Amino acid sequence: MKKVVTILLVLCMVLSVVACAPAATTTETTEATEAPAAEATEAPVAEATEAAVALNIAMVTDVGNIDDKSFNEFTWKGCSDWAAENGMVANYYRPSEDSDEARIETIKTAIEKGANVIVCPGYLFGATYQQLPQQYPDVMFLGIDLGIGDVPEPQANTALITYQEEQSGFLAGYAAVMDGYTKLAFLGGIDVPAVVRYGFGFVQGANQAAVELGNTADVSMKYWYSGSFAPNDEIKTKTAGWYTEGTQIIFAAGGGILYSAIASADEADGKLIGVDVDQSSVSERIITSAKKELENSVKLALSDLLDNGGVWSATYAGVENKLGAAQDCVGLPTDATAWRFSTFTVDQYNALLEKVKSGEYVISSAIDMQPTVTIAVDYQN
């Protein structure tokens, strides 16, 4: 009897262990799936939130607003799009007037409201950027189309971006000649370095295409600086005369002077090349624009700031970065609405762009001497 009882007790114990075993496995499985999940989704997020860089970007306009179809609009688009893509904050501010005092006061207001990144486009901010970064060492300043010439002694919290305008001008000149234009003209504003680089690049590009086509004797160019960035009757008279003399297309590089050229082109059924941004929406006369990729350059700089913990890396800190085709920061617009060439194709343009990026086409950035070319260039200043 005792043996029977003993056997029954042993069987009960075995059954008890077997019955409990699956329950223990389930508990371990639950721990294995839930605990690591909590560690993977909650702990790192909490740590990332504590350590994350929170960029509060303030873009300050120059004399225009963010719908100017120029520097303000496209700089703001770069700031706002990047902020949206990276979960950051971006706002824009417009000074009350065109003065250094108003620009400085506007930036101070933005900082008081929490901005820790200031983005400003254009040479008008030169004096401002020479003063404010010293007063606010913990605020990062980004100057678009601002160089050492505008800010001679940039602080470590200041990043300056300029462009290789000669490359953009080269692309426009090359494309125009390849598209069949032989009588070209360059209309510059004030002969500041950026405008000169656009013009000399345009000459080099037109010449390169003419050499490749074997028609250098047929291609010619008129070249003139108007001495102004504003439209006026003198510019309209000058450009109207060019069209009358047979000019087919004018590259207008100088802000508002484009509008004087448009008036002439409308009367003469002429064509134009825009500058700095895609200006195809301004007039159907504009077949392309020699662009600075403002949006992309803003995004590159802000990404550097984010990746480096909210301060400029050595690549940007107190440095002027001159961006070009290699950084995808100059070029011609290729959207269907902006591409108005007759025979020159986007594929041909992309092949051209790769040659500029690789350095196969050597484009001089010198502004102290006129380019040595084979085509005839009539410098009229």
- Would you tell me the structural class of the helices and strands? alpha/beta
Count of β-strands: 13
Strand arrangement across the biggest beta sheet = 12-10-9-8-6-7-13
- CATH homologous superfamily of the largest domain? Response regulator
Q: Give the overall silhouette.
A: globular
Strands, helices and their partners?
Layout: H1 2-41, H2 43-51, E1 56-60, H3 71-86, E2 89-93, H4 100-112, E3 117-121, H5 126-135, E4 140-144, E5 158-163, H6 165-178, E6 183-188, H7 193-213, E7 220-225, H8 233-244, E8 249-253, H9 257-268, E9 271-276, E10 286-292, H10 294-307, E11 320-323, E12 330-331, H11 346-358, E13 376-379
Parallel strand pairs: 1-2, 1-3, 3-4, 4-5, 5-11, 6-7, 6-8, 7-13, 8-9, 9-10
Antiparallel strand pairs: 10-12
Describe the structure.
By secondary structure, this protein is an alpha/beta fold. It folds into two domains: 139 residues, Response regulator (Rossmann fold); 175 residues, 3-Layer(aba) Sandwich (Rossmann fold). Helices cover 46% and strands 17% of the residues. The protein is built from eleven helices and 13 strands. Strand 8, helix 9 and strand 9 form a beta-alpha-beta unit. It is globular and about 60 Å long.
